[in-house]
Each structure stands twice: as C-alpha cells, then as structure tokens.
Design goal:
By secondary structure, this protein is of the alpha+beta class. The protein has a four-stranded antiparallel sheet. The chain is built from two helices and four strands. Strand 1 and strand 2 form a beta hairpin.
Length: about 100
C-alpha cells in the first residue's frame, strides 16, 4: 500500500501484503478505509487490515462460491429453480 503524496518511495510505502496469488480486484473498506478485500485470479478472497498487514480472513475458490451461493439462496434473492455464484466480480462494504 503506497501513499503517493509522499516525496520518496521509502516514505510512500505504508504496508506490504503477500496475497499469495495474482491480484485481480482490490477494495478498501471500513470507516477509515483500514480494511482491504482482495480477489485473486484463482477465485480466492482474503480480507486484510492493511496498516498492521494482518490477514483477517482467507476463503478459497469453490468453498467461497458455495458459501455465497448458500447466502443468496437463504436471502430469497435466487431465481426460480435456484442459482449459484459462478464468478466473483468484486467486493463491496456498506455500513
């Protein structure tokens, strides 16, 4: 995580996170944007507190899609005959 307002690269580097796979999408979230939701190219998602570089949660591929598909089914948002999450597009956060 970089702060581009800083005068040098050393001062600009705030935190380094090893996601462990090619990063596809990133979202900052939380009241002060202290959280990061990272989606990877191999369909995993991890949630981080970027300032401390601590991983809060890590969910992988098929398990994540199944978990989200179950949540959609329980919410009543699924189409007739059921539906499942096939592809992860992004992360959002709302207070």
């Amino acid at each position: 995580v970089y702060d581009p307002s800083q005068p040098s690269e050393d001062a600009a580097l705030l935190s380094t996170l090893n996601i462990g796979a090619p990063l596809r999408h990133i979202t900052f979230f939380g009241p002060n944007n202290e959280g990061i939701c990272a989606l990877t190219g191999n369909e995993t998602m991890s949630v981080w507190h970027w300032d401390s570089a601590q991983k809060v949660s890590d969910v992988g591929g098929i398990g994540l899609r199944g978990l989200l598909s179950d949540a959609v089914g329980k919410s009543g948002l699924s189409a007739e005959g059921g539906s499942s999450v096939e592809y992860l597009v992004g992360c959002t956060w709302s207070s």
